[in-house]
Write a structure and sequence with these properties.
Elements lengths: L3 E2 L1 H14 L5 E7 L2 E6 L24 E8 L8 H9 L3 E6 L7 E4 L5 E2 L2 E2 L1
The structure holds zinc ion.
C-alpha cells in the first residue's frame, strides 16, 4: 500500500519533535485507508534520549493505527537495529524525522525496513 500524509499532520510531527528535542519524540500514526491524518500519543509515553521508541511496544489494539513515527535528534533518519525490530512488530509504515525537523527532514520505511516514498498532501 502506498501511504500519503496530510501536510498539517507532518507539520505537527515536526513541531512535536522540535519541542521534545534533544530528547526523542515518538507516536503512532493513524490513517483513513492510506492517508495518515493524525498522530496518537500513548498515555504514559515518556520521551527520553533512548527510551521513547520502546514505549511503543505497549500498543493498544486499534486497526486505524498503521505505524509509528519517532525523531532522531542526531538528524540521521536511518533506522537503528532497535528501530528495525520495532518496525517488524508494529504496523506497515514507519517514519523517522531528523533534526532540524523541516518538512523534508524525514524518511519512511515499511515493516522490513525498506525505504518507501510517502506523498505529502
Ligand atoms: Zn530510531
Amino acid at each position: 500500500m502506498n501511504f500519503r500524509i496530510k501536510k498539517d499532520t507532518l507539520m505537527l510531527i515536526m513541531e512535536s519533535a522540535r519541542d521534545t528535542y534533544p530528547d526523542e519524540f515518538a507516536a503512532f500514526l493513524r490513517a483513513d485507508r492510506s492517508i495518515i491524518y493524525e498522530i496518537v500519543l500513548l498515555p504514559g509515553t515518556v520521551s527520553g534520549r533512548r527510551s521513547a521508541v520502546y514505549q511503543l511496544y505497549m500498543k493498544p489494539i486499534d486497526f486505524s493505527l498503521v505505524g509509528t513515527v519517532h525523531s532522531h535528534p542526531s538528524g540521521i533518519t536511518l533506522p537503528s537495529p532497535e528501530d528495525l525490530d520495532l518496525f517488524s512488530k508494529t504496523g506497515s509504515v514507519h517514519i523517522i524525522v531528523g533534526y532540524p525537523f523541516r518538512l523534508k527532514d524525514f524518511s519512511a520505511y515499511d515493516r522490513n525496513g525498506k525505504k518507501i516514498d510517502i506523498e505529502i498532501l
